[in-house]
Design brief:
Layout: E1 6-11, H1 16-32, H2 39-74, H3 80-91, H4 94-104, H5 107-134, H6 140-147, H7 150-161, E2 166-172, E3 176-183, H8 189-207, H9 211-217, H10 228-239, H11 244-247, E4 248-252, E5 256-263, H12 264-272
Antiparallel strand pairs: 1-2, 2-3, 3-5, 4-5
Length: 273
């Protein structure tokens, strides 16, 4: 079966419809590679990457607005647009952005606000997914419920205004399937370090054959679960017979990109032996 060598898509809302579309594309690539039995595991990795990007983009906007408000208070002679323009310049220097953000924000408060938005998003998606499953429009009651989700509505508006989005790219060759998930906002070094720490922690548990204990100990997470999603991905990759550290790479600059490289021959040998 032939499939497109490269597919690129933009994810605005990670609804069931979007998930079904992504799963369908991934299934075509898996089938073309003779690895259709791994479609669920591969999709689970992509699912975690996208959900992690959603949280990261929400967190960036909250940090950006908190810093903007603080700078406005410090420099009342400047307009909001002037401050935002200066802040966008600061963001280009990762170290300067990290320093300013660390001085301005409370990690706990930001994480609480991210959780609040994610909870509202969950209510919205429950309604949207129900209408998708039942092939119908929103009821008046559902419209009222959605209108009440002000934190979620506001941040979705800001994402659109500032062109912050998630880009998914899938590319196939005779040797690899490459999956790239990019969120067009920077990640703080604090959060990037947390990802690496959680991955290291998970690896130690797995080496001691106590993988289940890692997830039990991390049921109640801080920072809205930042880092835990990557540990889940490492678990799926390990179960597929891959070395997680060499299978997924995180590239952090003005954007944040996770690149998943799946070596087809290794996967075939491991699962068909």
């Amino acid at each position: 079966m032939e499939t497109k060598k490269k597919v690129t898509g933009i994810i605005q809302i990670y609804s069931r419809k979007a998930r079904d579309q992504i799963f369908g594309i991934g299934e075509k690539y898996s089938r073309a590679a003779g690895l259709e039995f791994l479609t669920e595991d591969i999709f689970s990795c992509v699912d975690e990457l996208i959900k992690n990007s959603v949280k990261a983009n929400y967190k960036f906007l909250l940090i950006f607005d908190t810093i903007t408000a603080a700078l406005k208070e410090k420099h009342p002679e400047k307009t909001i647009d002037q401050i935002r323009e200066e802040l966008f310049e600061i963001i280009k220097d990762k170290e300067a952005y990290d320093t300013l953000a660390a001085k301005t924000i409370s990690q706990e408060e930001i994480s609480d606000r991210v959780r609040l938005i994610l909870n509202e998003e969950g209510k919205y998606l429950n309604i949207r997914n129900k209408t998708y499953d039942e092939h119908r429009d929103y009821t008046e009651e559902e419209k009222k419920t959605i209108a009440s989700l002000q934190n979620f509505i506001q941040i979705r508006k800001q994402l659109k205004e500032r062109n912050i989005k998630i880009i998914l790219k899938i590319e196939g060759s005779k040797d690899y399937i490459y999956i790239e998930v990019t969120n067009t906002a920077p990640i703080m070094t604090h959060d990037l370090n947390r990802i690496y720490e959680k991955r290291d922690e998970y690896r130690h548990y797995r080496m001691e054959e106590k993988e289940h204990e890692f997830f039990i100990n991390n049921i109640d997470t801080s920072d809205s679960g930042f880092g835990l999603g990557y540990a889940k991905i490492d678990s799926f990759l390990s179960n597929m017979g891959l070395v997680p550290e060499s299978s997924i790479t995180i590239i952090s600059a003005n954007n944040t990109t996770a690149l998943l490289a799946l070596p087809l021959e290794n996967l075939r040998k491991y699962h068909l032996k």
